[in-house]
Design brief:
112 residues, flat
């Protein structure tokens, strides 16, 4: 039951931070449709929600093992890198850039 409360708190904090980030960019979306505004709010929310889940996973699963003398893995550094991208709000930007890069590669391969 404790996990449900923590995930609910992560959800609410992510929603709040997503609206704050959207409010800082709201001037860019003045003359756009509600679809674009919703997508931006959704991306900002998911950025912080995924970051919160990653942080919760690390604190609940990996940190106790590390404090008992466990070994830091490469995956711990990758998770930390993704966590830092999310904390600073760049996770959704990186995922968009990766998606567009893959799309460009696939379109070049299929055109040949």
């Amino acid at each position: 039951m404790n996990n449900v409360y923590i995930i609910t708190i992560i959800f609410l904090v992510s929603l709040h931070l997503g609206f704050i980030k959207y409010a800082s960019l709201a001037n860019q979306y003045k003359n756009t449709t509600w679809h674009s505004k919703f997508i931006e709010i959704w991306n900002d929310f998911m950025n912080f929600f995924i970051t919160g889940l990653i942080g919760y996973f690390f604190i609940s699963s990996r940190l106790p093992l590390l404090l008992k003398g466990g070994v830091l893995n490469t995956s711990d550094f990758i998770v930390f890198f993704i966590f830092m991208l999310g904390i600073f709000g760049h996770l959704c930007v990186i995922s968009l850039n990766i998606t567009e890069g893959i799309k460009a590669i696939i379109s070049r391969v299929l055109e040949k």
